[in-house]
Design a protein that fits this description.
The chain is mainly alpha-helical and 274 residues long. The chain has a domain at 71-244: MetI-like fold, CATH 1.10.3720.10. The chain has 11 helices and no strands. The protein has helices at 9-44, 63-66, 72-105, 111-123, 126-140, 146-169, 174-182, 187-216, 219-224, 231-238, 245-273. Helix 3 packs across helix 8 and helix 6 crosses helix 8.
């Protein structure tokens, strides 16, 4: 009769360490692969190129940071993207937050259908939403331009805000709002002083996500922009003849701004938790 010896505690610990090391290595490889295009963009923002083609390293320079707005059309496109992103973030947050609160707090007829509609809007390809909105604007005779881009982006971003706020509602304690009402606070005061501060991280996250999606979007924008040119549209059209270094600089600054906002959000969350 043969017996199988069980691994000792030391052997099991070594195996666990090896598995953990392998997972950490794999994680860092994936992170490096994701950050590689961003690193190349940052690097070539300092490339001392003499022509429109910015694909080979020719030396270090700060010229493109000094002449960041030397291309008027590119500057206008960037301002269009930032302006549209701000408007979309505000409008989509105002419209999506009540939906998320209703889905997280109440049980009502049709709740499942609303859930399905929100997730379907997120899962659907952008080309489907872009084409549908284009058909709607054509049927209604609405000229495409700045306004139609805003409407299209708001329609695209509302589900993200609603789902983010709904997830935040999962940890919401309604008894706190009831206690505020019992202490004499009116509905608006209770919402402003109790409910909104608790939901604020989810609301801010949804707004930032809307802004990022709007600035980044190409497909829906290309269907509904008309003569309005945004930053992604300008970069795509310029790729045929050569992307100027200012594009890399602007991308670097947008990425840096995103890091600063994310870092500030983490610090605020830790301060609230502490």
């Amino acid at each position: 009769m043969t017996t199988t010896a069980t691994p000792s505690r030391t052997v099991r610990r070594r195996r666990a360490v090896r598995r953990g090391s392998g997972l950490r290595l794999w994680t860092w490889l994936v992170i490096g692969w994701l950050l590689l295009p961003i690193a190349v963009m940052i690097l070539f923002g300092f490339n001392d190129t003499s022509g429109k083609v910015n694909f080979t390293w020719q030396g270090f320079t700060l010229t493109w940071y000094e002449h960041l707005f030397a291309i008027p059309n590119l500057t206008d496109a960037l301002l269009n993207s930032l302006g549209i992103g701000l408007v979309v973030a505000v409008v989509a947050t105002l419209l999506g937050t009540p939906i998320g609160m209703a889905l997280g707090r109440y049980r009502f007829r049709g709740r499942g259908s609303v859930d399905l509609l929100l997730f379907a809007a997120i899962a659907a390809p952008e080309i489907a939403l872009g084409a549908a909105l284009l058909s709607l604007f054509i049927i209604l005779g609405v000229p495409r331009g700045y306004g139609t881009v805003v409407v299209a982006h708001v329609a695209f971003c509302i589900p993200y805000v609603a789902i983010t706020v709904r997830a935040r509602m999962a940890g919401y304690d309604p008894t706190l709002e009831e206690a505020a009402r019992d202490l004499g606070a009116g509905p608006w005061t209770a919402f402003r002083l109790v409910t909104l501060p608790m939901l604020l991280p989810g609301v801010v996250s949804g707004a930032l996500l809307c802004f990022a999606l709007s600035v980044d979007d190409y497909v829906i924008t290309s269907f509904n922009a008309g003569r309005t040119v945004t930053f992604p549209l300008w970069v795509y059209s310029a790729a045929r003849t050569g992307v100027p270094p200012q594009v890399n600089v602007m991308g670097t600054l947008i990425f840096a701004a995103g890091l600063l906002v994310a870092g500030a959000n983490v610090l605020l969350a830790r301060r609230r938790a502490g």
